[in-house]
Amino acid sequence: MIIETVSHLRKYNYSNELKLYMVNFEKINFHQTCVFPYNILVVVKEDDNTDESYIYSKQTEEYHSLRRGHYYFIPTGITAEYCLRPNIRYYTFHLGLELYPGIDLFSSLRHISAGKADQWLGAIEEVYHDKDEFRALCRLRQVLLAFFLAHWPAERHHEQIPEEFRALMQYIKTQSDATMTVEAIAERMKMTPEAFSRKFHRLIAMPPKAFIMRCLLEKITAQLCNSDKTIRQISVELQFSSEFYLSRFFKKAMRISPLAYKSMVRKA
Predict the structure, then answer these.
(1) Is 133 in the same domain as 36?
(2) Last residue of a domain, which of 99, 117, 150?
(3) What is the pLDDT of residues 14-52, one digit of tens each?
(4) Which of 109, 205, 215, 256 satisfies CB 3.0 to 4.6 Å to 176 for a cystine?
């Protein structure tokens, strides 16, 4: 057994959590190119055989018509065109499984995966028929974790991140706002900004500024999904100089305005 000591547990205590950002069973009219900071799983229950709805990856030029009885898994960070028409009705899950704080297990994948969803569709529908709200959510997490285990990436990066950098990643994830700088983080680590940036990039496979922005974006999307705060309130809380700058930051990263995103995810 590979997990033998408490050190193995401590290594992943900062993460090892399946996060659900949105769960819905919907039929909508939505056409937008987006880049989400988490994974998207779409499981189609109904369609009318017109192939109106599709997902298209801008990076790999993969085109997937959305068909009944199939799943579509879009890993985090992929720029994709989503054309979701009322010809389909589907379950959608915005979710993540952190390998380390701010680093999703599937973040290195660049391809959309698709396949027959008979197993997953049946299990999801059983969950939706459960009358116990808390038990249903626990069962849903079980189903989604089983999906992740069945689609475990063959190769993973970020395996040799030392403890002090994992703790730093957790700090950035919880404390990030629009005023956080690489210089301040480097000082916290008692390193020059240049040396810190080089080491961070080597260990995490991204510049520290990009990591800070990713954590900040996740905070904004969580607020838009799960609170009734206005864009202005969120901008003040995260120390943006104005609502305009938050909106510009969000749209540059996500390819969609915060108001449009909020409208999309809050539809029931």
Answers:
(1) yes
(2) 150
(3) 667 788 988 999 898 989 999 998 999 999 999 998 989
(4) 215
Cβ-based neighbours of 200, under 8 Å, separated by 6 or more: 165, 207, 208, 211
What is the identity of the amino acid at 67?
R
CB of 199 within 8 A of CB of 162?
A: no
Tens of pLDDT along 184-227?
999 999 999 999 999 999 999 899 999 999 999 999 998 998 88
Residue 127 within a domain: yes
The answer to whether 173 and 215 are in contact (CB under 8 A) is yes
Whole domain around residue 25: which residue ranges?
A: 16-150
8 Å CB contact between 93 and 144: yes
Residues 217 and 250 in one domain: yes
C-alpha radius of gyration, the chain, whole number: 19
